Amino acid sequence: MNKNGDQEILQLIQDPKTRDVGFRQLIQAYQKRVYHVIRRMVLIHEDADDITQNTFIKAHHHIDKFQGQSSLFTWLYRIATNESLTFLEKKKKRNFFSIDDHQEKMESYIDQPGNIDGDEIQRLLQKALLTLPDKQRLVFHLKYQEELTYEEMSEITGTTIGALKASYHHAVKKIEHSLTLE
């Protein structure tokens, strides 16, 4: 969606008479993209659905704090990534997973037919991504899969460009190492 589309949605949301219509348009415009961002982080469809819903609920509650310094999608992306990271941390704690147990469980999910599209290389990449800390995986996803600039990534994550470049570099090195071991 372009800046004009964002402005139209925001105008609808700001008017109490058209607020619901504006939110429906916001969801319609961004739901699929937000879902895919989350799905890449948490892998499991049902979890991604729940987190997507939570993202839009949070957006609904906090839309008045949106200052328009970024696009609506960047703002939603920030909420979605924070919700995903929080979910992953809670899931690890709730299930008393060690990092290795959590990684093993997610790898077995990847190995199940139909859970991850693509060929063997895609499956191996997904497994390699699971070896990364959540925040490195997020940075790799934003840069490599979403093709965002470091400036956009900085806006979304609230992290300096230098730190993002370092995280991406470390993620790539870990993935390369992991793939050469396969």
From TrEMBL:
Coiled coil, from the record: none
Name of protein: RNA polymerase sigma-70 factor (ECF subfamily)
InterPro entries, per database record: RNA_pol_sigma-70-like, RNA_pol_sigma-70_dom, RNA_pol_sigma70_r2, RNA_pol_sigma70_r4_t2, RNA_pol_sigma_r2, RNA_pol_sigma_r3/r4-like, WH-like_DNA-bd_sf
Family in the record: Belongs to the sigma-70 factor family. ECF subfamily.
GO annotation terms (biological process): DNA-templated transcription initiation
Record GO terms (molecular function): DNA binding; sigma factor activity
Recorded superkingdom: Bacteria
Location of the RNA polymerase sigma factor 70 region 4 type domain: 123-175
Keywords noted in UniProt: Sigma factor, Transcription, Transcription regulation
Ranges where the RNA polymerase sigma-70 region domain occurs: 26-93
